[in-house]
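Dissemination and training. As part of the outreach component of the grant, students in the summer workshop were shown how a complex can be specified as a set of sequence lines and then modelled as a single object. The example used during the hands-on session is reproduced here so that future cohorts can follow it. Participants entered these lines:
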Amino acid sequence: MKFVQKGFDKIKPLFEKGGKYEKLHPIYEGHRTLFFAPKIVTGSKGAQIRDGIDLKRMMMTVIIAMVPCLLFGMWNVGHQYYLATGVDATFLDKFLIGAMKVVPIIAVSYIVGLGTEFTICVIRQHDVNEGFLVTGMLIPLVVPPTIPLWQVGLATFFAVLVGKEVFGGTGMNILNVALTARAFLYFAYPSQISGEVWTYLGDKAPVDGYSGATSLALAVEASNSGMGVVDKLAQTNTALSADFFSLPNLFYGFIPGSIGETSTLAALLGALILIATGVGSWKIIVSVFGGAFLTGLLMNQVAANTYMEMPAVYHLVIGGLAFGAVFMATDPVSAAQTEAGKWIYGFLIGVLTIIVRVLNPAYPEGIMLAILLMNVFAPLIDFYVVQANKKRRLARATV
Amino acid sequence: MSKIVKLKKGFDINLAGKAQKQIANTPPSDTFAIKPTDFVGMTRPKLLVAEGDSVKAGTPVLYDKMQENVMICSPVSGEVVEVKRGAKRKLLEIKILADKEIEYENFQTYNVSDIKSLSREEATAQMTKGGVWANIIQRPFGVIAKEEDTPKSIFISAFDTHPLAADLAFTLKGEEEAFKTGIEILKKFTEGPIHINHDLNGEVSSVFSGIEGVQHNKFSGPHPAGNVGVQIHHIDPIAKGDLIWTVSPYGVAQIGKLFSKGVYDASKVIALAGSEVTEPQYYKTLTGACINKMVEGNLKQDHVRYISGNVLTGEKIDADGYLGFYHNSVVVIPEGDFEEAFGWILPTTKKLSFHRAFGLLSFLNSSKKEYVVNTNTHGEKRAFVMTGAFEKVVPMDIYCDYLFKAVLSEDYENMEALGIYEVIEEDIALCEFIDVSKHDLQAMLREGLTLIQTS
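and obtained this result:
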């Protein structure tokens, strides 16, 4: 590593005050700290020692937690491709064709996002924050594999600029940045992202009787025609596989959908990592699932249409609920920040997700809108939790 | 009456190099210094001596223009050799070259029955003149108490949970009578109770056990259970308008000696600790002592940081720097001014961390493992991102994130409402240690305290 260090030292004067590229100093610093933890020491007064953690390690922990979703997502893109085209393929074939589709999306997301971030760091002369490391991986996982790359780039640019930087950068944003990108696509290009045909087919034609609809789209369709949702799921794509939309398949994620969100199992593996490392709030994750399940049960009681009659447990495994609960709702910047607030915040996300899904057929996916809405309300929840703390203190005061 | 409080929140930092319970046989220092910067809130120090003057132990050396009666006195007799000033002529150090034998200024002595009948005014006069008043710290703000105030109670923490802290039972051995006298004096200042707070799981030292007419409370839990601010929060919390005084056990004994012996006795037993000290042990010295004779030839390497006080709240000093007025330990740890290849991601069990993020495996170690921690910050300053972590290390009903943000936005109303009166730097020092975003939270809090104090 000595030669890398020497290389950095050699170009350092160019980026220092008075150097040729002094304006680009944040970029130099951003890259150097990627190779070497900086040699900054504590100040002369106050804590003389510091914890071994830093924001980079925390963000990396989230990315590592996303790896199960990412790998499964790559494989599943290929799996769906070969199922739809009626070709038998090996594990490796599926994974490779998936990777071919997914890696460019990731690359575009990182290149556009980091480019925007670096540009703004240079304009505003502040250090590069690590926030986008996570966002850049989240965006590819919440888009369908069939998305045009230019849309990924545009959405990423919009999300970083309008979702984050106009508020002051990492730590200051109100909305989850990756969901801002998703919402941008959803409202700007509704025809491509409404959940009708999300399976990558290349230039091949699908086999007879194949439907590329997602489970959420099917549920809405069934409800509109007065057919039981579970029956509808059971009848779809039986030509490819007898239990294509069975409960276990929905849980494992062998279904069409956005790249990283189909597998509840992979999301739960990520949840395990986040909870064990303390990086994600278990309170939020548990309360999202709890809120969604209880609302599902309540819908069962009302049972005004067939979507409402769908067993509540299906709500936990269809669509992106699990992925959203684990990776989006737990974003510490846009979530509620008080511990009591986290329970309320998570629970309401679960409740709203089901309400949007079931009661508003115009939007098949509820988790995205639920989280964005609760992002906006999180400060209000915190306000009341903190207010209670202030009142306790005030009650003691005599003057 | 007495309370038992069991705390769960907090974090014990177990560092290598704990002081052996023995007193080193090292000649005392030649030079001593008084540092006006040790006294929080002292904005306009006025010097009473000049270079070349000779002083006795107990001779007033400086006072604060804002509090003219409270004298800071010389710990030894000798000659003022240097008055060191910094930028804008800020007074930094008043150095005194000590005589071989200490000569003391004489103050009135009192026997036990005299002390009982002593009035508050007489006691105040002797304490402010005799240099021991500075031991009385007022909450809120953590500054030297005002003579005219009457606190609702007085708190004394009889144990210290800071990393590598000196064992108070050991450093105060033999001070039983002085401590008792000090308590009798303090009783004159409040109608409320005097609280002495002990470690629930430790043995109560004879210094504190025989004290009557005070409330003995017990605390258990990780650091900061020994912090007097935390103890106040659980026994007699401070609301707006309340005033509480705190005194360290050493300060109580020093007050006692001023009355029973009639001298300003600045001698103290301190701990020299830290991973880089060859023989960590206790030293008998005086307030303001130069540390050079303790550390010379007693270190494992020379690229180190010398800290007066403890690693969480202390101050960096030079190899020939001086012990702070309120400090009873000197800690030597390695400097961390080097780059570490991929230090931000490589898994390690050696880096101490409160968190468990990927690769920070120190939580797998036994709690008895002692860590060598250097001064590296392990990261750069970032925006506040992680939430809910501060609350896990502050065993008080306070939303630290919100308090810090109120300070940053200079929002007086919210600072007050969120409990700024209940904390000083040491109470949130662990937040600064565990902070993912590497902010200087103690300095930030002090800014807020100063804003409120001067508003």
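Residues 31-100 of chain B form a domain with the OB fold (Dihydrolipoamide Acetyltransferase, E2P) fold (CATH 2.40.50). Students were then asked to discuss how this feature might be tested experimentally.
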